[in-house]
Amino acid sequence: MIQLTLIRLNQYGKWTHTLGENREHMLQVYQAEFYKIIQKKFSSLGGIVFQNRQDELFAITNGIGVHTHQKIIAELELLFPFDILMFIGYGTTPFTANRAILNLIQSTAAKKGVFGNPGTQGQIYIIHSDIQGITKISNDISPYEVSNLVHKVYRLVSEFFMDKNSLTFFMGGDNFITVLGADAENSVPDLTHMIKEEMGLTLNCGMGTGISALEAVTMATTSLDAIRALRDVQLVSA
Q: Which DSSP category does 114 fall into?
């Protein structure tokens, strides 16, 4: 089972208008600081936070209870001038946990607080992916074109795994993390083949499991680093 928490800055758009027209740079600072702090809080408890939109984040929160969520909200509201909502959903796959969150959102009109209850905890399956040769590609096309290429790959990876009840998040650079349903891991060869066929690129995928999100991500990154090391040895040998 996957426990997923949606963190929403409630009525954020309305609040931003109170800052005046010269606000965009201030919002970027608020958003960066909020992400930094909430990532530290959840990762210290074995979770990990992903940006969905700047005013909305997902966290994998297996093993983290309602009281702890409430404590985090209380701490954050001392630091930021907007209300925070958290919705806890769980399911046999990340996507079904995400759908459970939708049901919670539709059934509450509250402006802040924690809604939902933790579920039975289970093993978490994660893939950490990157695009092979992105440094060489960066030598041949402009920085903006590189970013555009990476986002095209992200869209393909995200849609591929969403069809398999899994969620993929862009982590910056050329890195993606996918939170899998247990049966989705067997589809990785199909994914890498698709990326090769459609984009002409090689996608490296390190896999990891754990009882906490942080443990699973660490194992996935360790696997990806091993692939990178082997790739570098092969390049030197060639």
A: E
The pLDDT tens digits of the residues spanning 16-66 come to 777 778 788 888 888 889 999 999 999 999 999 999 988 899 999 999 999
Q: Are residues 100 and 171 in the same domain?
A: no
Q: Which residue range forms the structural domain that includes residue 84?
A: 2-115
Flag the least confident range among 12-21, 55-64, 199-208, 222-231.
12-21
Alpha helices, DSSP H, located in 8-142: 12-16, 24-43, 66-77, 94-106, 134-138
pLDDT at 238: 45
Stated pTM of the model:
0.90
Please say whether the beta carbons of 161 and 184 come within 8 A: yes
Indicate the residue among 94, 115, 136 that finishes a domain: 115
Q: Which residues pair with 206 in a beta bridge?
A: 128
CA–CA separation, 165 vs 182, rounded Å?
10
Distance CA 59, CA 39 (A): 9
Which is it for the CA torsion 74, 75, 80, 85, positive or negative?
Answer: negative
- Please give the structure tokens belonging to residue 131: 């695009």
138 and 87 co-located in one domain: no
Same domain, 194 and 94: no
pLDDT band at residue 12 under the 50/70/90 scheme: low
Number of structural domains found in the chain = 2
